[in-house]
């Protein structure tokens, strides 16, 4: 092995520092990823890297071992390799990829991602200090005839985005099994938090201690799933929303994904992941490339700071909707498949009277769709149900000044449909027999250009005929046995989803102003690739506010509130059977993109009046609620939850105190209000919209409010109210 050029590069931005070295092995490895530490010079970097170098101990490789961003087994790394694959016949299964070039592109002044027009700075071997931008490492192995472009971008808000592209420079096929990327974690980080769940109960947190070995989460559903990891987080034991250094990863692979934390007995641990590939899914012919998903890494003091970096990056996207989110009525729970014009017109009138701004017609409007056993794939208005088309309903909705939205499930097909009968080869199937049915449906092969064009043509025609400004894009089954019948039944799970996202982009390009909500039987497809193509996520099919409190609380670890559909439903939940007061249902829904999913024609005059008050309050507050910094905490033994949003300039805030259950303690200690400016004085008051919560016993300060500094409110706190379980109260905080 010849002399390997050496690079040391520090990038710092958004409170995060990333220090990388290319050393003797030729693989980029991270010396430090974590909090920004201030000014540094190239000479400082050389000293720091020397100070962190490890000594040899007994019985180790002669080459200094460091966990590369693309870990290489040939170096003696005993953990999960970064690249797994081989050529025809089995060669090139252990490539020796070494860095041959490094370049840097600074983040543009507008804070966006670097473009092809951005000037790249080629870095000669040496030490460098830079700000926000993208480092690209070119790694090659002339023997294996493989090359990798490894990109690490430090965003202005302090997230680290890592991606790799593998290129086959040989003369025969390369069969890719895995392409994993990883960043190191300090060894004192030894507790893991991630998420699981099931239908109507998404984003359930789970914790465990880190031990030697691998904590591995793999998802093979063709979507992230109800049990999605969402974020893989690690910190010192007991880390919470406000305290403890936290490191986190999201793998933005909207089909199948892999997350892992690995601790090795040699004294290393890494946080990594990649796209999970089926056998034969990626075979690179000579000259072909595979581009892996973006891995989004965050860090911060407590879960809120780590989440805030994700939120800030998402809000910087050109596709982000901003805070002007229209109050939405979805009619599914009001009518189901029974779409009668008179009923829908009455719902539109009732919605308008309440101040609703968007009306969404859900499943059941298209050809043959009387129940969930038929019709998917035939995206034409059913003339039996709608003899005059959708025009009478659309005209009433638009005449009231509301937007009109429509439900689709473009990636799915019922075998009982015209398209399936005419084109059975358009259905994904790895075997001559179709995959096991799920909700009476199969998956339409969007990697087949004819099938893609069929869906696009039908959807585009409807968007041109009617003033549709919003699509609810559903996806109601796992995608397994995803073989394309037009490609020798080869696995196409990842390409299938990429084709669906391309369809979203095409429709939005051709219909400016169109918004798309990603729904997947609720929250089964929430990820940071889909979010770059859509403007809303449906959190869950469960609208029980007690369940929604937890699901919103933890979905916010990744996604900011303006993207999260949050609806007020009927008093008795359709999924759990629980019954709740309107005040609790509405206050729970306030902290996302507010909507209604309720048969308003069956609501009482008193209920409608209260709901109108809540809608008016949301409109008054949505600029704050949907742009501020999210803060979360617990009070006392945890029987009171705190959720809040603080304005970016800390001039005002809104907090909710929620009682999920009756605690063992009669009073729950002090209520501390985080996120305010320490030396600024604030006035804190309760705010009742509609009726006060049942069973409320207010503390003395509720009568007149209280004035204190932000530091006092965060550290000393206030006596919280006593609440019945499954009740909540709203607090308003204003700068004096």
From TrEMBL:
Keyword Hydrolase found: yes
SUPFAM superfamilies referenced in this protein's UniProt entry, alphabetically: (Trans)glycosidases
EC code: 3.2.1.22
Hydrolase in keyword set: yes
Keyword vocabulary terms for this entry: Glycosidase, Hydrolase
InterPro entries: Aldolase_TIM, Alpga-gal_N_sf, Alpha-glycosidase_related, GH, Glyco_hydro_27/36_CS, Glyco_hydro_36, Glyco_hydro_36_N
Catalytic activity annotation: Hydrolysis of terminal, non-reducing alpha-D-galactose residues in alpha-D-galactosides, including galactose oligosaccharides, galactomannans and galactolipids
Taxonomy of the source species: Bacteria, Bacillati, Actinomycetota, Actinomycetes, Actinomycetales
Domain Glycosyl hydrolase family 36 N-terminal residue range list: 26-285
Protein name, per record: alpha-galactosidase
GO molecular function ontology, one term from the record: alpha-galactosidase activity
Annotated organism of origin: Buchananella hordeovulneris
Biological process per Gene Ontology, one example term: carbohydrate catabolic process
Classification via Pfam families: Glyco_hydro_36N, Melibiase
């Amino acid at each position: 092995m010849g002399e390997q050029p050496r690079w040391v590069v520090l990038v710092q931005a958004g409170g995060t520092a990333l220090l990388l070295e290319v050393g003797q092995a030729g693989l980029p490895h991270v010396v430090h990823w974590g909090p920004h530490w201030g000014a540094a010079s190239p000479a400082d970097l050389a000293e720091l890297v020397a100070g962190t170098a490890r000594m040899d101990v007994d019985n180790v490789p002669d080459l200094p071992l460091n966990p590369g961003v693309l870990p290489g087994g040939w170096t003696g790394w005993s953990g999960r390799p970064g690249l797994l694959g081989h050529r025809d016949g089995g060669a090139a299964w252990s490539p020796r990829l070494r860095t041959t070039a490094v370049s840097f592109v600074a983040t543009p002044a507008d804070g966006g991602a670097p473009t092809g027009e951005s000037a790249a700075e080629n870095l000669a071997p040496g030490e460098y200090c830079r700000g926000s931008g993208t480092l690209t490492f070119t790694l090659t192995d002339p023997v294996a005839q493989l090359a990798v472009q490894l990109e690490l971008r430090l965003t202005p808000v302090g997230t680290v985005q890592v991606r790799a592209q593998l290129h086959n420079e040989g003369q025969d096929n390369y069969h890719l099994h895995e392409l994993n990327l990883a960043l190191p974690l300090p060894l004192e980080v030894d507790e893991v938090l991630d998420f699981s769940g099931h239908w109507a109960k998404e984003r359930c947190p789970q914790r465990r201690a880190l031990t030697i070995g691998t904590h591995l989460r793999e998802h093979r559903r063709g979507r992230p799933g109800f049990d999605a990891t969402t974020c893989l987080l690690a910190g010192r034991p007991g880390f919470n929303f406000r305290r403890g250094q936290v490191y986190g990863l999201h793998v933005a692979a909207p089909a199948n994904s892999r997350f892992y934390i690995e601790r090795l007995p040699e004294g290393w641990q890494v946080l990594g992941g990649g796209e999970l590939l089926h056998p034969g899914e990626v075979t690179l012919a000579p000259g072909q490339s595979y581009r892996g998903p973006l891995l989004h890494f965050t860090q911060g003091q407590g879960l809120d700071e780590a989440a805030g970096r994700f939120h800030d990056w998402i809000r910087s996207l050109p596709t982000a909707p901003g805070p002007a989110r229209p109050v939405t009525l979805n009619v599914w729970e009001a009518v189901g498949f029974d779409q009668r014009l008179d009923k829908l017109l009455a719902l539109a009138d009732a919605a308008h009277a309440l101040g609703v701004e968007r009306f969404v017609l859900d499943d059941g409007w298209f050809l043959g769709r009387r129940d969930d056993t038929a019709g998917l794939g035939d995206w034409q208005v059913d003339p039996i149900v709608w003899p005059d088309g959708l025009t009478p309903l659309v005209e009433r909705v638009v005449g009231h000044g509301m937007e009109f939205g429509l439900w689709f499930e473009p990636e799915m097909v019922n075998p009982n449909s015209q398209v399936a009968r005419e084109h059975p080869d358009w259905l994904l199937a790895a075997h001559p027999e179709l995959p096991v049915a799920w909700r009476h449906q199969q998956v339409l092969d969007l990697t087949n250009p004819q099938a893609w064009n069929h869906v696009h043509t039908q959807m585009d025609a409807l968007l041109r005929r009617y003033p549709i400004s919003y699509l609810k894009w559903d996806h109601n089954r796992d995608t397994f046995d995803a073989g394309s019948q037009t490609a020798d039944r080869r696995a196409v799970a990842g390409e299938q989803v990429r084709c669906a996202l391309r369809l979203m982009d095409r429709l939005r390009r051709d219909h400016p102003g169109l918004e798309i909500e990603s729904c997947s039987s609720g929250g089964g497809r929430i990820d940071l690739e889909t979010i770059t193509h859509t403007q809303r996520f449906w959190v869950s099919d469960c609208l029980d506010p007690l369940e929604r409190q937890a699901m919103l609380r933890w979905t916010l670890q990744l996604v900011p509130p303006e993207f999260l559909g949050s609806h007020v439903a009927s008093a008795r939940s359709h999924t759990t059977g629980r019954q709740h007061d309107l005040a609790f249902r509405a206050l729970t829904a306030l902290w996302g993109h507010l909507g209604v999913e309720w048969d308003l024609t069956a609501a009482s005059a008193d209920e409608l009046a209260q709901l109108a008050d809540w809608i008016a309050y949301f409109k008054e507050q949505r600029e704050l609620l949907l742009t501020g910094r999210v803060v979360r905490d617990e009070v006392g033994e945890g029987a009171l939850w705190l959720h809040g949003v603080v304005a970016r300039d800390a001039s005002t805030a809104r907090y909710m105190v929620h009682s999920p259950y009756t605690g063992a303690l009669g009073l729950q200690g002090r209520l501390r209000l985080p996120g305010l400016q320490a030396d600024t004085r604030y006035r804190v008051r309760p705010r009742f919209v509609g009726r006060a919560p049942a069973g409320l016993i207010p503390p003395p300060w509720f009568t007149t409010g209280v004035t204190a500094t932000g530091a006092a409110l965060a550290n000393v706190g206030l006596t919280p109210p006593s609440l019945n379980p499954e009740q909540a109260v709203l607090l308003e905080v204003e700068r004096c």
